[in-house]
Amino acid sequence: MNTTKTSVQKLNKLDHSKAPLYEALCLYEETNRISMHVPGHKNGRVFDKAAQHHFSNVLKIDATCIKGIDDLHQPTGSILEAQSLAADAFGADQTFFLVGGSTIGNLGIALTVCSQGDKILVQRNMHKSVFNGLLLAGAHPIYIAPAIESNTMTAMVSDPQHIEEALAEYPDIKGVWVTNPNYYGMSQDISRLAEVCRQAGIPLIVDEAHGAHFGQAEEVPPSALSMGASLVIQSTHKMLTSMHMSSMLHVNDDIVDRERLARVLGMIQSTSPSYLLLGSLDLARRYLVEHGRNHLKETIQRLENRRGELATELKSLTIWSGSSEVQRRDPLKWIIASKDGAISGYQLHDLFNDQGVVAEISDPRNIVFLFSLNEKEEDIDKVVNAIKAIDQKLQGLSFIPVEKNDIIMFETEGTLYEPKISLQDAFNRKRHKVELDESIGSFCAETVLPYPPGIPLLNPGEEITKRHVNTIKQLHEMGAYFQSPSDDSMETLYVIK
């Protein structure tokens, strides 16, 4: 299925020039009634004076659920209409607006699909929110090791054949959960996997946080919805234009209990959701349909022209242009690395930061630049000039090359691993702290999380191996950031007693 064509066909039925939720907030502002309700800033009348010039306009529509403004937890008016327009634009049967980022969506999916003790096949390189959701649900994940792109050493969806074999080995699983694309914009064809899941009567769940723009133009990879996924979570704020923390959860078929999903989201989302975030989702959809698709095409043409030029000009740096291992790449992501591994991605991040260009992510060998739907030549020029300047700077320096394949995050592609201790059980057991080297052979009692991209190296309940310990040491020495470790020095670790 071509999502773009499907969306265009549906445009004949719905009026995408409307932004019903945003329009309801504007009407609320225009009525100018005296607020005797929350929030306490009273439409901006009571606020820090020094900062009021920044916040004054948005505070006027920072509303709550009152007459004339719909309820996220029981939508019957503007929110319901806005969500229906979003479902139409993205090719879903039903769409839910989220105000806690894709994290809330992943938690909601886990609590909807899984009950206590249920098994679910999970790609091991998932965001921590997926594992946290499964922990809360009391589910037992069966981990499957991802594929690794050989040039960038980044993790991707495992070959569908490995997943089919896993389904044969675990016929009682409740679903298959993968990340596509990865943080680096690498996308695989999951249509075959979706069909396998459909025949098994289980949902294919796709964390598409970095692919909200997929399927919106022929120049970008197809969306997970167009390839047959049952549940798709998108961070609308990442690659589209809504405000930070605003995301969408799309449902594509009837395998999933939508009534249960709505109840779960009502439990875990705030009863005082931000209407600024909700309104921005409505506007992101309108902008995408009215202008964003055309802007996306124009931006990609500009970026691809410059990418091609850089690929031939760079001497000390490289810019990734795809590989036979990756079905499609996102042209809005540029992956920059040092040739021959002369310096790490963490060092490159600092060099570009000094040049006034802040990368989206850095890892042991790469940094990633993330472009928007609408980038002008002059804005792209700034990034290109910084790349050329650092490339030139590195030519005059000498480095001791780092090993390219010395950091191993995951097992061999397709390897299945069922932890002996469940996430929830591991979280609730007594724990004690030991020296890192002494932890080998023990079961982990905390999440070891290099960040970003937020993929745990170790989850609670996993057995700690020498590989894990070596990787922790190497990442820490290279300057990797670990989120919320029990020991910032990474010299000790909590293990289960």
UniProtKB/TrEMBL annotation:
Keywords: Decarboxylase, Lyase, Pyridoxal phosphate
Signal sequence interval, chain numbering: none
Domain Orn/Lys/Arg decarboxylases family 1 pyridoxal-P attachment site: from-to ranges: 20-320
Cofactors demanded by this protein: pyridoxal 5'-phosphate
Superkingdom per UniProt: Bacteria
Positions of the Orn/Lys/Arg decarboxylase C-terminal domain: 417-476
InterPro entries in the record: Orn/Lys/Arg_deCO2ase_major_dom, Orn_Lys_Arg_decarboxylase-I, Prn/Lys/Arg_de-COase_C, Prn/Lys/Arg_de-COase_C_sf, PyrdxlP-dep_Trfase, PyrdxlP-dep_Trfase_major
Family, similarity comment: Belongs to the Orn/Lys/Arg decarboxylase class-I family.
Stated name of the protein: Lysine decarboxylase
Native species: Siminovitchia terrae (Bacillus terrae)
